[in-house]
Amino acid sequence: MMFLSKKALLVNEALILIGVLVFLSGCTPLERAAYSGVVGAKAALVQFRSQHPECAFDATTGLSANVKSVACTANNRLTAAKDAIIDAAEVYCSGTTFETGGACNPPAKGTNAYTESAGKLKAAIASYNQIQKDVAVLLKGGAQ
Amino acid sequence: VNSYVMLLDLGITLTQAFLGSLKGNKVAGNIDNLLGVGQSFVDALMAHKDDVITKAALEAQRG
Question: Considering the entire predicted model, what is its pTM?
Answer without folding.
Answer: 0.71
